[in-house]
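Assemble and predict.
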Amino acid sequence: MQLTDRLTSGVRAALAKAGLPEPEECAWEVPRQAEHGDYATNVPMVLARAAKRAPRQIADLVVKNFPPMAEVERLEVAGPGFINVFLAPVWCAGALREILGAASEYGRGESHAGQRIRLEFVSANPTGPLVIVNARAAAIGDALARLLRSQGARVTTEFYVNDAGSQFEALARSFEARVRQEFGEPAALPENGYPGEYLVDLARTYRAEGGGLLHGAPERERLEHFGRYAVARMVEAQRRILREYGVEFDVWSSEQRDVRNKGLPQKVLEELAARGLSYEQDGALWFRSAEREEAGDDKDRVLRRSSGEPTYFGVDVAYHHHVKFAAADRVINLLGPDHHGYVARMKAAMQALGHPPEAFEVMIVQLVTLLRDGQPVRMSKRRGEFVLMEELLEEVGRDAVRFTFLTRRHDSPLEFDLAVATRQSSDNPVYYVQYAHARIRSIFRQAAEQGIAVPGLTDVDTSPLVEPADLALIKRLLQFPELVRGATRAREPHRIAYWLQELASEFHAWYKNHRVIQEDLRLMHARLALCATVATVIRNGLDLLGVSAPESM
RNA sequence: GCGCCCGUAGCUCAGCUGGAUAGAGCGUUGGCCUCCGAAGCCAAAGGCCGCAGGUUCGACUCCUGCCGGGCGCACCA
């Protein structure tokens, strides 16, 4: 059981014993100042109205009736009615052994146990290479998957390929034009085509592989041929970059193969119609989106055009309902800000189809404004101008890129200065954290070289760890499981990144003032145990972010 | 015009579902390596938390209205 859960049970027991009502939730925070204890709760103030008592009076009763527990040294009432908890030093030091015993399991929890979650992110169109914002979404999505899994959820990560519809056609036409040019024929790019150089390169590859022009074949067939080829290669390239980035998807689904070819759009449209959730007008089929006020859409949406073709929305509704929700009870989509107008209608559709509102989550990953030497670089796939994810990885490095994106909230637009990122890559915060880990590993190498026998750390005597700095470090380590749980619940991986910097900072300062390898064997072993624990927690934390914890750097 | 996101130190950003005296990195200034890794440590300077009201024991946090920036408002995806 986690520490804060133990404290909560103590508070509840005390309230019950005092004949006071219990709160629905008991929130614990780590006070900014050490004088305010290791944990504090505002329960007495929350309860004041229901209990018809003054907060401080309630707090007094809780403190008086709090059952004895090994974790807690003392409690005190403070301010307008806080209860401050001071942990018992002996218990804290002893807890190190449990963390070491848990090893890579430390930080895991059960807060999402039993949930089946379908998590989609990146899902860039197969019409071009991945760009910077995709790297941001990939870092956040992957970290989120790791967090959710650490809390017991069964997560399926997914990259959805939009290999159908008008964009597919534009790609097919663009690529065909490039191929014709490659063969020396005059051909102009279509109006809505993709002018990027990458299609020129792809056309060259295509020809080198013996691909032909398909003269005389019907247009439908040619577009299918060129489109499929281009999509396959684009997806392949995207997958390769993501793999280099450390992001692997469980599922690569295809709009054409997994939705359209299976007749799902038709199916879901019939279901909607049967339930009276849609209507015909001007030859098109409309979804009654506006009347579902709780979802927030302001107008009805077309599901099937008057031409008979389903819209992207119609296809997507089918996909979510018949594929995603068939395999999961919770769906999380990370989308770009250009899709946020789309969110309300999807929520409305999901609710109309009977899925609880909280089962469908959308996270908007805001744009990355790229700066080069302080000047914004305008990016446009349509104009073929962009900075590739590949270039970013080469210039800055995988760990630094991921960590940088994970130190920002997903819904906050961020500026990424390439020049600064490159120049500062050696003092990027990620190295600060990794350095703490490498430093600790180095201590153990050092010890081994000196022939020092390190006993089993999980049963080492930790009682020599009595200094305030020792205890402060240990108490921070004890926060980790709660941190992970909170970051998962809030879908905020950046909390991990920030916390790791604080932990590293505390360790570096401790290290400066505390000699580990030394004459006093009991003290040395206790400090080695502390170091090993810090390294374990840093490793576990970085692992949740998909960032490596190097042995040396 | 309507909707969503964002305005916090010179810059880039945190501030944990309302808590106690607002933080970090970078940058600036000044110290610290005969001692386990100086990618480190210590210290200083730097703030009307966009503005104005409201809610309450308490507001960077919630509500309203402005100002400023970004993005959306298709039988496109």
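Residues 371 and 480 of chain A are 35 Å apart (CA to CA).
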